[in-house]
Write a structure and sequence with these properties.
73% of the residues lie in helices and 2% in strands. It is mainly alpha-helical. β1 and β2 (137-138) form a beta hairpin.
Length: 163
């Protein structure tokens, strides 16, 4: 069976997102690192990227269909990359007063979404704390790199020409 290039790329994105989610759950449940609100938003963005890529892999569209899935993937990975960049910025420029603040579940239960989102993006002391690094890069830094890679793959899919 000969798989198309777009199906292969979409499938690779699905596997990467599943692996990233698995690693995030490992860090949370085995290593004991609790995710902050911005971490949870990044996880949701990885899930969104994985679902869009899964739909693209299953559908395996050509032409405009491939570009539509790629555009959705660019939008979701761009949003996730923006959240990751915000958290990296918070880690490099921590707030003067560190407070743990409320968790995401409390914010969403207690406030309407229009009030909760600015509070979530403001970040807390937890969002500015670097709990784990690999090669000197923190978790949101690696998430940003992964979102860039997903976005790059989607841009390549959107603009590639068939031979």
């Amino acid at each position: 069976m000969n798989m198309s290039v777009s199906r292969t790329v979409f499938g690779a994105v699905v596997l990467a997102c599943a692996g990233l989610m698995g690693f995030g759950l490992y860090l949370q449940h085995v290593q004991g690192l609790e995710p902050c609100p911005l971490c949870i938003l990044q996880r949701l963005a990885f899930i969104g990227c994985g679902l869009v890529a899964l739909a693209g892999a299953l559908h395996d569209p050509a032409g405009w269909g491939r570009r539509a899935y790629a555009a959705l993937l660019i939008a979701v990975s761009g949003a996730g990359g923006g959240v990751a960049a915000r958290q990296v910025w918070l880690q490099l420029n921590p707030p003067r007063t560190l407070s743990c603040g409320a968790d995401m579940e409390y914010l969403l239960d207690s406030f309407p979404l229009t009030q909760a989102l600015p509070m979530i993006f403001r970040g807390t002391g937890d969002c500015a704390k670097v709990q784990w690094t690999f090669l000197g890069i923190s978790i949101p830094g690696w998430a940003f790199v992964c979102f860039l890679a997903i976005c790059g793959a989607a841009v390549w899919l959107a603009f590639r020409r068939r031979p």
